[in-house]
Design goal:
The chain is mainly α. The chain is about 55% helix and about 5% strand. The chain is built from 15 helices and 5 strands. Strands 1-2-3 form a 3-stranded mixed sheet. Strands 4-5 form a two-stranded antiparallel ribbon. α1 runs antiparallel to α8, α9 runs antiparallel to α10 and α11 packs parallel to α12.
């Protein structure tokens, strides 16, 4: 297994290779940001704290220059944005609300498109070189750190192939080779967790995972064991972070699913109903009460519109959000159900 600390060090070494002899390392020493005697250690990625501080500082300065280039090339398109930013409150919790402002989101999108233009080389090769560096430090590396700190396995699996490409392109063959094997094992980890738990001795088991796929695999594997075998162990899934952290009792879910299968598919094996799951089309299971209610509301809305078809505007006075729809980005989307997706009875105290 590859440790996160050494993966980041290898990444900093790759970044050192990327910027070596570009001239920027001499600018850093002349600006007293980096001592001359520490230059090669920084280039080779030997000092974690120093590399983190200097690479983030350099990437932020360069991105600020790129942003200034955007302002220079389109000076007449940012008046509304400047007006909104002049009203930013000093309280950070209140300032976060500005991100949903259409003016701010449009401005951010404009900058993203401008950055992509630089990455594609339309602003010149020098701009393309440093835009690539900005992307690797301020996007890729920060996303990697976020996944590590929040234990986001799915995000980590999504980001790591890009890290492997960096290792391969910038002469880190060992990390490119063993990182590929590490990623493959990490991708198969969900199935291995369920396999090991299914073969554990009786007792209480707590599985810590941020990926809900683990829950589905656990239900599939444990649910096909005989009742007398799985009744000897209690499995709890610890998922989520901070205030959203939950403890889900896997055995309770399996019990509820078994009762559902026995009720609607009486021909299945009574002692182990979930073993029949591959031979049953689960799409024919009836909707839950909450889902059915939303479907009835949407059907009722359509009926009301058709009954008023002789009017110029049949939908006048009718709000779709009162009949099983919600508005997302100016588009109507079905509300599948109201309330929590998992009943509170399936949680356990933590």
């Amino acid at each position: 297994m590859l440790g996160n600390f050494h993966i980041e060090l290898a990444f900093f070494g790759a970044m050192g290779t990327f910027i070596y002899e570009s001239g920027i390392e001499f600018i850093l020493t002349k600006a007293d940001i980096l001592a001359e005697g520490s230059m090669m250690g920084f280039i080779k990625g030997k000092f974690y704290n120093r590399c983190t501080r200097i690479h983030e500082l350099l990437a932020n300065v360069l991105e600020r220059k790129l942003y200034q280039r955007l302002l220079i090339e389109s000076p007449d398109r940012h008046d509304d944005f400047e007006q909104v930013m002049s009203t930013v409150p000093s309280d950070p919790s209140l300032a976060e609300g500005l991100l949903s402002n259409p003016v701010v989101s449009t401005h951010i999108q404009m900058y993203d498109e401008f950055s992509q233009t630089a990455l594609e080389g339309n602003l010149g090769m020098t701009a393309q070189f440093w835009a690539t560096y900005i992307y690797l430090i301020n996007r890729l590396h920060r996303d990697l750190q976020k996944c590590i700190k929040t234990n986001d396995v799915s995000g980590y699996i999504e980001i790591f192939p890009m890290m492997l490409a960096v290792f391969f392109a910038l002469n880190r063959p060992n990390y490119a080779r063993w990182g590929t094997l590490f990623l493959q094992k990490l991708t198969d980890a969900d199935t291995l967790i369920a396999f090991h738990i299914a073969n554990l001795l009786p007792g209480n088991v707590v599985v810590r995972a941020s990926d809900t796929d683990v829950l589905i695999i656990l239900i599939g594997v444990i649910g096909q064991q005989r009742r007398e075998v799985r009744s000897m162990r209690n499995i709890i899934l610890d998922c989520g972070m901070a205030n959203s952290r939950r403890y889900i009792n896997v055995m309770n879910i399996i019990t509820v699913l078994e009762e559902l299968f026995i009720l609607h598919f009486p021909f299945c094996i009574q002692d182990n109903p979930l073993s029949n799951i591959k031979r049953i089309d689960c799409a024919i299971l009836p909707s839950s009460r909450r889902t059915l209610e939303m479907k009835v509301r949407r059907s009722h809305y359509v009926t009301l519109v058709w009954k008023r078809a002789m009017l110029a505007c049949p939908s006048d006075g009718l709000s779709p959000t009162d009949y099983g729809w919600s508005v997302d980005d100016n588009l109507l989307k079905p509300t599948w159900f109201e309330g929590p997706p998992i009943p509170t009875t399936l949680f356990t105290g933590g």
